[in-house]
Amino acid sequence: MSTILEIKNLAKTYKSGDRHLTVLEGINFTLNAGDTCSIVGPSGSGKTTLLGLCAGLDRASTGSVILNGIKLDNLSEDERAQVRNQYVGFVFQNFQLIPTLTALENVMVPLELRGERNVQKQAMELLGRVGLAERHDHYPTQLSGGEQQRVSLARAFSNRPTILFADEPTGNLDEETGEHVEQLLFDLNREAGTTLVLVTHDLELAEKTQRIIRIKGGHVVSDTGAPEIIATRDAEQ
Ligand SMILES: Nc1ncnc2c1ncn2[C@@H]1O[C@H](COP(=O)(O)OP(=O)(O)OP(=O)(O)O)[C@@H](O)[C@H]1O
Ligand SMILES: [Mg+2]
């Protein structure tokens, strides 16, 4: 099995004025290609920060992130953007759609960046998969929170990511739409082998992933389903 993500002794400290706030410290884990993993923990424990570091959106203060064999630590902003565009899908907790673009245009952006053909047709298909084909010409402000979340998912799927990070992907959705989105995520994992890393407060969703990493106060407090833990457990039996 090939390693898709390797996190080594990761820490993130924010500076505000002359104060330092350590948000994450001593984080270590490895994911294999095709894994499904949830990151859970209380509000403010560092989940979104961790996801952003894993995806190369932000840089760690110390430690290392190796994504698909590429060490992100010393890459420039542009180089990290290239890695993201090639391998990573990201669903933001606050969606981060471009307000001046319609739903369709938002989904088209990653496809255009990759220089793909039939961009509009592909983007329409993706919007259809999240049940929003009819709202394609609406701007983010004309969409509900749940609808924006689904556009954000369609955009994250659009570059057929090797690894998809989703921050509370069902957090703003009603039960039925949430289940549909869950289905889409796990279909993507099964059909395309996309590695899934989800941040969620929904323990039912977390339990559907192979692995649950629990963080508290910026530290990993438990990591169930990690291959090394299962190996140790098996060896003990
Ligand atoms: N840019 C920043 N500057 C300073 N502090 C930050 C910054 N970003 C995040 N933090 C702090 O880091 C901590 C972790 O934030 P983070 O957003 O990762 O939490 P979270 O686990 O995702 O919480 P939630 O479940 O509420 O989304 C918080 O205390 C937050 O205030
Ligand atoms: Mg968060």
From TrEMBL:
Gene3D superfamilies (UniProt xref): P-loop containing nucleotide triphosphate hydrolases
InterPro entries for the chain: AAA+_ATPase, ABC_transporter-like_ATP-bd, ABC_transporter-like_CS, MacB-like_ATP-bd, P-loop_NTPase
Segments forming domain ABC transporter: 5-237
Entry keyword set: ATP-binding, Nucleotide-binding, Translocase, Transport
GO MF entries: ATP binding
Listed PROSITE patterns: ABC_TRANSPORTER_1, ABC_TRANSPORTER_2
Alphabetized CDD domains for the sequence: ABC_MJ0796_LolCDE_FtsE (cd03255)
Organism superkingdom: Bacteria
Family membership noted in the UniProt record: Belongs to the ABC transporter superfamily.
PANTHER family named in the record: ABC TRANSPORTER ATP-BINDING PROTEIN MG467-RELATED, LIPOPROTEIN-RELEASING SYSTEM ATP-BINDING PROTEIN LOLD
Protein name: ABC transporter ATP-binding protein
Origin species: Pontibacter ruber
